[in-house]
Write a structure and sequence with these properties.
Blueprint lengths: L5 E4 L5 H12 L3 E6 L5 H9 L3 E6 L5 H14 L5 E4 L15 H29 L2 E6 L12 H21 L4 E8 L12 H8 L10 H12 L10 E4 L7
Parallel strand pairs: 1-2, 1-4, 2-3, 4-5, 5-6, 6-7
Helix pairs in contact: 1-2, 1-7, 3-4, 4-5
Length: 246
């Protein structure tokens, strides 16, 4: 019997990450639900109740020791990581350029450059040993549609895309694909303070005429995680309802 593939989805106790975890479990993968301070057990329990395999693993994915412990714990509990989904994020405050300091840049780089680096390095040896794997970055439309006051966030996301493409070229000979899914503004729990006026202004720029849903993003992650998409690497799918066309 072929061993069940294992996916680690960082930042998956709610929002987009939770939808990704549920979708990958529905696809037949065992899913490691990660969050910073706990809270992932509810998602893992829902997956198990639906007949899937999942466990929760709280860890700070910007901390080297915590990442090493996370990947080791997943391997001990579910098996070695075959699919890594780099989704964890943090606050993205809008800051005018004349008020922006380097520490704000470092905050963004910790989530979108340092964390993926730590995670990628932690799973790499196992993927090489098994002859392949999937690394999926959750990026953003902001690289193409930068918001006002978003310089630190946009810079970090741009660096993440460059890193993804570089990894894809380096790891392709070893059967490890590296791709990115870039959502537009998908309203989830952490956007509760976004005003209705802002939402409506954004919606007016979306040709599809609706907001995307977490399941829309999870479908793109599912695509890159599939075993039969092994010849697709270094690519970015933008999930934005056509907004990038405007």
């Amino acid at each position: 019997m072929t061993p069940q593939r294992v996916a680690l989805v960082t930042g998956s106790s709610r929002g987009l990450g939770a939808a990704m975890a549920r979708r990958l479990a529905a696809d037949g993968l065992a899913v490691a639900v990660n969050s910073l301070r706990g809270g992932g057990e509810a998602v893992a329990a829902a997956i198990r109740e639906a007949g899937g395999t999942a466990a929760a693993f709280p860890a700070d994915v910007t901390d080297p020791a915590a990442v090493a412990g996370l990947v080791g714990a997943v391997a001990d509990t579910l098996g070695p990581v075959d699919v890594l989904v780099v989704n964890a994020t943090g606050p993205q405050p809008g800051i005018p350029l004349d008020e922006l300091d380097w520490d704000r840049h470092l905050d963004m780089l910790a989530f979108f450059v340092r964390s993926p680096l730590l995670l990628g390095q932690a799973v790499l040896a196992g993927m090489r040993e098994r002859g392949g794997g999937r690394i999926i970055h959750v990026a953003s439309e902001v690289v193409d549609k930068p918001p006002l006051g978003g310089a630190a966030y946009v810079a970090a996301k741009g660096a993440q895309i460059g890193m993804m493409r570089s990894w894809a070229r380096e790891l392709a000979p070893e059967g490890i694909t590296v791709n990115a899914v870039a959502p537009g503004f998908i309203p989830v729990e952490r956007h509760e303070d976004v005003s209705d006026a802002h939402r409506q202004r954004y919606l007016a720029t979306v040709p599809a005429g609706r907001f995307g849903t977490p399941d829309d993003v999870a479908a793109a992650v599912s695509f890159f995680a599939r075993e039969d998409t092994r010849f697709i690497t270094g690519q970015r799918i933008v999930v934005d309802g056509g907004r990038g066309l405007t």
